[in-house]
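Students often ask why we bother predicting the structure of a whole assembly rather than each chain alone. The short answer is interfaces. A chain on its own may look different once its partners are present, and contacts between molecules only exist in the joint model. In this exercise we take two input lines together and write out one structure for the complete complex. Read the inputs first and try to guess which parts will touch.
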Amino acid sequence: MSKALIIDDEQQMRRLLRMVLESRGYEVCEAADGQLGLQDAAFHRPDVVLLDLGLPGMNGIEVLKRLREWSDVPVLILSVRDQETIKVEALENGADDYVTKPFGTAELLARLTVIQRRRFTRQSAEIVVGPLKLDLLHHGASLNGAPLKLTPTEFALLKVLAEYSGRIVTQNQIMKLVWAGQTSDPSEGLRVHINHLRKKLGETGPRIVNEPGIGYRLEEV
Amino acid sequence: MPAAVYWRVMFLQGRCLKPRYVMSSAKSPSSQSSPLPIPLAEVGQYSCGLTLVFVLASTCWVLLPYTGDLFAALVFLMAIVVVGTWWNRGPVLMMAVVSALVWNYFFIPPQYTLHIEKPQDVVMFSLFFIVALSMGHLITRLRAREATLAQHHQEREHLLAEKHRAELLAESERLHRTLLDSVSHELKTPIAIIRTALDGLGQGNPYAIEINTATRRLQRIVESFLEMTRAESEALEPQPDWCEIGDVLHTATAPIQQELAAHKLQITGTENMPLLRLDSRLLAQVLGNLLHNATRYAPAGTAIEIHATLANGTLELRVRDHGPGLPLGSEDHLFEKFYRAPDSPAGGTGLGLAIARGLMLAMKGDIEAHTHPEGGAEFVLHLPVKTRSAA
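Now the answer. The structure tokens for the assembled complex follow.
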């Protein structure tokens, strides 16, 4: 059974999240502020953390930074909309994904599943996203069993997106992982390669979805 | 005209001459383009100075038998001190030199010659000359310093006022943002709770479906108000980045899938469009508002068309529906806040188009609306964009 820690200052929100998560078989503990949240994270060792950004006192970003000093537990950010910059800040400080309040329960549960799953795919030599297969040893790719011709950059880009499949990856993270931050106009080059990849993945392959101001997410069709 | 009156008139004119000449020199470009050795404003002072010396010399000459030559020297000195408080350095120094020579010529014996006989008169003349010159010099220097001080003071005041204003603006902007954030949090949290609770209830119950519809509507209204406030605030700064038109359209349509489901969305002109540099979130918001409007006004089953073109660095997007078109005379008010066309379906805030226009203006673009000749409303967006080949 997975253990989830909810850090949110709204009591009603915590209660509802507890009901939703317990109905899906999670064991739930909750904290009303960042300080208590950090203590609970150390004490209960949860498998996943749901962190509200708008916390009183120590804000969500600060909680995340402290948590990341000693733990790599998957963290899902809950935030109110229109805060792209703060979302990017959270993601680049180690958050795994976010949902925007008000959110649908289905979306929340899907994100939780995805961020807990990533641990396994990282260790294997093959990444599978629906009909897409990436062979990390031989740098080969195939779609629906047919080989997919990719340039080295496209392969590296697709590998990053597939590794975090279903999860948002920020533009900066992609730049660091694919180009080691070494291009002059990052977004422009990135857009061009994404464009090429989308054409090669076609209708049947996973979709590369853009989230404006944040980054990309590879989604299974 | 008695000499004293004439003197006063000339003297007063000398005072007014300066600003008058300044004004006329500012008006006529010729005097600005050809630099005179003497500033135009000073010409009046020079002539007045000469006249003054002439008038004083005549008066003193008449009085010479009763007063003696020293009296004339003191009168000249006084005149130099007095005009020194108003006039520029040049005319004052000129007056010092001229009155020294006049005094020498007309008053120091032997008269009517520049030659001086008695040694004490030579000393007297040299002293007069030195005193007159230094007077003129000192007084004008004092005035120059006063003027600089006044100017510095004024500049300082101006800078302080500017700084104060900037601080006030920043503070009000910060307050505004804090207020917006907290209002946003307070309004959205209950909606989030209702939605989560409704999801838990399941969608089988018809009452739950009604609450769900109302909640979505409430959420839309709250978001419109917040977006309107943001569009009106100075804080709204577009953040352009390279993007694909397809991504913009996806961002625009994803949140209103449910509303769009009843219509046929047809998108043309986007194939092979180069990368565009724009704030895709803002443009998506504009398109989302237009599409949402179209779904409300156009009958179910009709098509909603988006046509994109790119020409001369301007992106044009046309959003057309096949509804009743715009009510006559509403074109001018359509984009006003809280304006609702007569016979609009219930449940709108009258903010969607005002937001759309606010955001387009923030991006240096524009938006217009008309009824299509073949029926239906058509909205046209223009946005200046940089482009780059995406191939």
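Check your guess against this: Chain B touches chain A at residues 181, 184-185, 188-189, 191-197, 199-200, 219, 223, 226, 230, 239, 241-244, 247-248, 250-251, 275, 279-281, 284, 388, 390-391 (CB under 8 Å).
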